[in-house]
Design goal:
- With about 475 residues, the chain is of the alpha/beta class.
- The protein has 3 domains: about 5-275, HUPs (Rossmann fold, 3-Layer(aba) Sandwich), CATH 3.40.50.620; about 280-415, Up-down Bundle (Four Helix Bundle (Hemerythrin (Met), subunit A)); about 430-475.
- Helices cover about 45% and strands about 15% of the residues.
- It has 16 helices and 14 strands.
- Strand 5 and strand 6 form a beta hairpin.
- Helix 11 (about 325-350) packs antiparallel against helix 14 and helix 12 runs antiparallel to helix 13 (about 375-395).
- The protein is globular, with a radius of gyration of 27 Å.
- The structure holds one RNA strand of 75 nucleotides.
Length: about 475
RNA sequence: GGCGGGGUAGCCAAGUGGUAAGGCAGAGCUCUGCAAAAGCCCCAUCCGUCGGUUCGAUUCCGACCCUCGCCUCCA
């Protein structure tokens, strides 16, 4: 079986075939270009944002596992309405303001063990955007308004035989002309038209660039078209993002990009569009007033590790709303421990032995993931394997070669899951000394003292576990 | 109002026209000075409701109920 992916363009599961099957990446593997809409850096990222980014990381890692050479790009949106408002409030310069959140975002990605992508900043690609808008203007798809803004004309785009509304079945005549439409209307010709270039207004402060249409700044959608095409070419394999971006953001990206006619006949801007569903927290939409709004940092501050959060975010099918709960997070911790213990024991048995990866395990995992990244099935494969491995270890019927083979397969699977390895926090020296003292007390059968020492360590927030190799201290 | 997802055990969550994966929690057992950790094991006569098709439906069809999202800020 080959990798199957749900393509928002066709609203169907399709077999993944690269746009240019003969093309090779620098390492000689079949090339795949992947773009994921990245963050707007005006605040710390929340777990909803990171569900999408972990999803993107999973896609990218799985393609790699499947033998593709992936070039991955994720933009950093560092100019946008909300950013400008906050910049004005803070009194900082644009870059000064955004760099704080950009840096935090990169740290957060590392916390979640997301592989680094190329991350172009919107403000570093203003020239590309201006060039693209000029191209659209020359082709009659863009028009200026007296205030100096430039708009994309949906009407003219459709007039040259292009379809608008491919990612979602939209019926514009049935749409409610909501109150939100009015706010951004300026003087555009049609409600569906969107801004390519926004003329400078006093509230923009210093945030402004020169352009053929006068000072201003880019519209929201144009950056992704300009940067993805600049780095991946006018036509590439995969474009990812949260489901809310399908319309209007991605729809507008398609219109702008294909409107430029840079793709060549019969070539799409993007071959496969993948959209990740949102998450709920404790069954409700995340909101600050409900008290269920979590940044990644809120969770790590509570003592959760990135890999635990990552595991939970990856535990459900990406196209369905996922309910993120604190119970679930505790559950992810237990589930990971189960895997960690098993892998540690295998490591002990395998020693320095080398062996070919267990192909049964790998193919079961691959079959699950090929099914549109059915991670729930993949986890079942992993945990079935853990149980069977534990049985064999307990029965002492596993050889070191078998252990090495299982471990080799796990290493490959974990290159996709990206869980890394368990990190054990070292206890402070004074607590280790107490634990040692307790060992002596136990030897002397002074159990009252032993229990008292355990209590003393516990009051410092650490738990003593007696193991055959001596006491182990862990956070309580 | 239009469009699109969901409703499966206490919680999370797969799946199939032939009788329900996996994880967490919980019970039991092993181990243990006591614990903890870990392991094994058990845990849905039933898949929102009501009809229909079928030898057989949780899975297909219809209706209904509930719920979430999108409809130009949004991962």
């Amino acid at each position: 079986m080959a990798l199957q992916l749900f393509n928002s363009l066709s609203r169907q599961v399709e077999t993944f075939v690269p746009l240019d099957p003969e093309r090779r990446s620098s390492d000689g593997r079949p090339y795949v270009g992947l773009y994921c809409c990245g963050p707007t850096v005006y605040d710390y990222g929340h777990i909803g944002n990171f569900r999408t980014f972990v999803f993107s990381d999973l896609v990218r890692r799985y393609l790699d596992f499947r033998g593709y050479g992936v070039r991955a790009v994720m933009n950093i949106t560092d100019v946008e309405d909300k950013i400008i408002r906050r910049v004005q409030k803070s009194g900082q310069g644009l870059r000064e303001f955004t760099s704080v959140y950009e840096k935090a975002f990169l740290e957060d990605l590392r916390t979640l063990n997301c592989q680094p992508s190329e991350m172009p900043r919107a403000t570093d690609h203003i020239a590309d955007m201006i060039a693209l808008i000029s191209k659209l203007e020359a082709r009659g798809l863009a028009y200026r308004t007296p205030d100096g803004s430039v708009w994309f004309s949906i009407g003219n785009y459709q007039g040259c035989g292009c379809r608008y509304g491919v990612l979602k079945a939209l019926d514009f005549s049935q749409m409610r002309a909501g109150e939100r439409v009015a706010a951004d209307e300026y003087e555009k010709e049609s409600a569906a038209d969107f801004a390519l270039w926004k003329a400078r207004v006093p509230e923009d402060g210093e945030v402004s660039w020169e352009s053929p249409w006068g000072p201003g700044r880019p519209g929201w959608h144009i950056e992704c078209s300009a940067m993805s095409m600049a780095l991946l070419g006018p036509s590439f394999d995969l474009h990812l993002g949260g489901e809310d971006l399908a319309f209007p953001h991605h729809e507008d990206e398609i219109a702008q990009s294909e409107g430029s006619a840079m793709q060549g006949p019969g070539r799409p801007f993007v071959k496969y569009w993948l959209h990740g569903a949102h998450l709920l927290v404790e069954g409700m939409k995340m909101s600050k007033s409900l008290g269920n709004f979590f940044t990644l940092r809120d969770l790590t501050a509570k003592g959760f590790q990135g890999r635990e959060i990552r595991q939970l975010l990856m535990s459900a099918y990406y196209r369905e709303t996922f309910n993120f709960t604190m119970d679930g997070l505790a559950g992810a911790r237990s589930a990971l421990t189960r895997i960690d213990e098993c892998v540690d024991k295998l490591g002990g048995l395998a020693g320095n032995q080398n062996a070919a990866a267990d192909s049964t395990l790998l193919s079961a995992f691959t079959e699950a993931m090929d099914d549109d990244l059915n991670v729930a099935r993949a986890w079942a494969v992993v945990f079935d394997w853990v149980r069977e491995t534990n049985r064999q270890l307990a029965a002492k019927v596993m050889t070191s070669v078998q252990a090495a083979s299982a471990l080799a397969a796990w290493t490959q699977i974990n290159s996709v899951l990206g869980l890394g390895r368990r990190v054990v926090e070292e206890a402070p020296a004074d607590l280790l000394a107490l634990a040692h003292e307790r060992v002596l007390a136990k030897k002397a059968k002074d159990f009252a003292k032993a229990d008292q020492l355990r209590q003393q360590v516990k009051s410092q927030g650490w738990v003593i576990e007696d193991t055959p190799a001596g006491p182990r201290l862990k956070r309580g």
